Amino acid sequence: MPQIRKILIANRGEIALRIMRTAREMGIATVAVFSEADRTSPHVRYADEAVCIGAAPSSESYLNIDKILKVCEDLGVDAIHPGYGFLSENAGFAKRVKEVGLIFIGPSPESIEVMGSKLAAKQAASKYNIPMVPGTPDAIDDRDEAKRIASSIGYPILIKASAGGGGKGMRVVESEAEFDEQMDRAVSEAQAAFGDGSVFIEKYITSPKHIEIQVLGDHYGNIIHLFERECSIQRRHQKVVEEAPSISITPEIREEMGHCAVNVARSCNYYGAGTVEFIMDENRNFYFLEMNTRLQVEHPVTEMITGVDLVKEMIRIAEGQPLVIAQEDLQIRGHAIEIRVYAEDATNHFLPDIGTLHTYVKPDGNGVRVDDGFEQGMEIPIYYDPMIAKLITYGENRETAIRKMVRAIDEYQISGLQTTLPFCRFVMQHDAFVNGSFDTNFVGRYFSPDVLSTKTDDEVAGLAALISALLSDASPESKPVQNEEVNTSTSKWKARRFATH
Ligand code: ADP
Ligand code: ADP
Ligand code: MG
After folding, report:
1. Catalytic residue flag (residue 407)
2. For a pocket test of ligand 1, which of 84, 241, 311 has the largest count of ligand atoms closer than 8 A to its C-beta?
3. Fewest Cβ atoms nearer than 10 Å: which of 38, 89, 159, 185?
C-alpha cells in the first residue's frame, strides 16, 4: 500500500490551509502552489514548500495542469489534493495525475465524469430507483417537444445546464410565453460557463429545502454516509448558511435519504468523499439533484457533529486503506452551523464588494471554528470566488449553536468592504430560520436591504452616548472624567458599526 509522504494542494485560500493542517497532523509534508495575486497568502506561508505557478487569472495558474504536474515532479510530490472548485471536478486532470504516477486524492476519473453531467448522473442513479424530480431524461434538442413536456409537467419549470455548477446556467420559466427567451439564456450561459450548452428540464419545486448527504467510500466497495446537511439559505441558487443536522427531517427520512445517497455513490463505483444533493418539497418528498465528487465547502458542519476529519479520511482512502468507520459507529452529537463570509454587499443584490481588509479580527471561544485564508491588510483578489472565511459554531443543540453564531458574528470585526455577516446575523434571528419553516426562497421572501439598516439595541445605546458626548463636549462645565467614559462608549460604537455594516 503506498504511503503518502508529500501532498501538493492544487488550490488556494481557506481550503488549501484546511487541507494542509490535516496533512501536518498526519506527518505529511505539504506543497502550496500560488498565483501572483496570492504571493502573501497564509496558505503559501503555512506550506513546507511553495511555488508560484503563474499570473493571477486562474487559467494561467490554478487551472494550469502542466505547471502543477511539473512542480510535483520537481519536488518529489506523491499525491495531489484538489480542494473544491478549480480542477477538483475535472476528470481529465484526475486522469493525467494518475497517468504520471501520482495519487489523486479524490474519486476515479470515471466517477467524476459520470457525476459531472447531471443527466448522466441521473441515468446512473436510476439503476437504484432513486426518486427524481419529474423532467426530461435527455438534453433538449427539439424545442417543440420540450415545450410539450414542460406543459405536461406543469409550469413553473426549471431549465438547467447538464454540466452546471455553482448555481450557473439555471433559469426558471413561469409560463410557456417565456420559454424561448429563458431557453436561449440558459443555453448561452451554459456554453459560456462550461463550454457545453446542453440543457434539460426539471419541474420547479416551489418551496423546497436543499438537503444533502455526505458519503465516504473506499476502494473495496465499502460506502457509508455521514448524515445530512441542510443548505436552504441561498442566494442565486448558491449556499450562504449550512447546518447539520437538518431541523426539517425525521430519523426515518434521514435513514432513507442516507440509503439513497449510498446507492447513488454505488451507481458510479464511488470512492473518496462526496456529496449527494437532494431537494425536498413541503410534503417531505425528496428527489435526487446531483452528486458533487469532491470535498464540499460546508464539510466542517459534518465534521463537528460526527467527530470525523473528512480530509484525513480522504487521504487514507487515497492510500488504499479500507474504511475503518462502519455505519453503526456513527452518531450525531450536537448541532453545527456554518455561515459563509463573502466580500459581498447584501444590500446591493449580493454583488461582490472587493477591497482591502483594513480591519480583520476574527471571533474565538468555546464552540467557534473559523476556516479562513486572509489576514488584516490583505486585499480580496477580483480573480477568484470572493469568500473570505467560513464561520462555524457548534453547540449541544440548535438553539445553542444559533446563540453562539450571533455572539461570534458580533465579535467579527471587518472593515474596508461589505460582507455577508450582517445578512447572516439577520438570518440567525429570523423566526422562519429559528422555527425551521424556511426554504430556498428565504432571501426573496424575507430579505430586503432595509432590514439591515435597523439599529440594534446596543447601537441605539451607542448613538445616545455619542449624542451626549457631543453635547457634553460643547458644554464648558463638563468634567474630564465624564468625557473619558463617554469616549470609551463612542469608540465601541464605532467598532460595532464597522463590524456589522
Ligand atoms: P458547495 O456545495 O461545495 O458549496 P458550490 O456550488 O458553492 O459548492 O461551489 C464551490 C466552489 O466551486 C465555488 O467556489 C464555486 O464557484 C466553484 N464551482 C462549483 N462548481 C463549479 C463549476 N462547475 N465550474 C466552476 N466553478 C465551480
Ligand atoms: P448546481 O450544480 O449549480 O449546484 P443544483 O442542481 O445542485 O445545481 O441546484 C442548485 C440549487 O438550485 C438547489 O440547491 C436549489 O436551491 C435550486 N434548484 C435546483 N433544482 C431545483 C428544482 N428542480 N426546483 C427548485 N429549485 C431547484
Ligand atoms: Mg448543487
Report:
1. no
2. 84
3. 185
- Per-residue pLDDT of the chain (501 residues), as tens digits, is 899 999 999 999 999 999 999 999 999 999 999 999 999 999 999 999 999 999 999 999 999 999 999 999 999 999 999 999 999 999 999 999 999 999 999 999 999 999 999 999 999 999 999 999 999 989 998 899 889 999 999 999 999 999 999 888 899 999 999 999 999 999 999 999 999 999 999 999 999 999 999 999 999 999 999 999 999 999 999 999 999 999 999 999 999 999 999 999 999 999 999 999 999 999 999 999 999 999 999 999 999 999 999 999 999 999 999 999 999 999 999 999 999 999 999 999 999 999 999 999 999 999 999 999 999 999 999 999 999 999 999 999 999 999 999 999 999 999 999 999 999 999 999 999 999 999 999 999 999 999 997 555 566 666 667 667 666 655 444 433 333 333 333 333 333 333 333
Q: Which of 501, 340, 361 is CA-nearest to residue 418?
A: 501
Place of cell 425536498: 280
| Most ligand 1 atoms within 8 A of CB, residue of 297, 301, 350 to mutate | 297
Q: What is the DSSP string of 384-418?
A: S--EEEEEEEEESSHHHHHHHHHHHHHH-EEESS-
CB-ligand 2 contact for 38 (6 Å cutoff): no
Ligand nearest to the CA of 279: 2
- Residue owning the nearest CA to atom 19 of ligand 2: 289
Note whether 79 and 98 are within 8 A (CB).
no
Q: What is the DSSP string of 160-177?
A: EETT--TT-SEEEE-SGG
Q: Which atom of ligand 1 is nearest to the CA of 294?
A: 3
Which residue from 116, 18, 4, 8 is spatially nearest to 392, judged by alpha carbons?
18
Asked if residues 12 and 384 have their Cβ atoms less than 8 Å apart, the reply is yes
How far is Cα 216 from Cα 346, in angstroms, rounded to an integer?
35
Q: Annotated catalytic residue: which of 96, 229, 235, 294?
A: 294
Between the CA of 21 and the centroid of ligand 1 the distance, in Å, is 22
290/312 Cα distance (integer angstroms): 24
Question: What's the gap between Cα 153 and its chain centre?
Answer: 31
Kindly report the protein residue whose alpha carbon is nearest to atom 21 of ligand 2: 204
User: If you take atom 20 of ligand 1, which residue's CA is the nearest one?
Assistant: 165
Q: Kindly state if the Cβ of 169 falls inside 6 Å of ligand 2.
A: no
What is the rounded CA–CA span in Å between residue 13 and residue 29? 18
Question: Does residue 94 line the site of ligand 2, with CB under 6 A?
Answer: no
Nearest-CA residue for atom 5 of ligand 1: 166
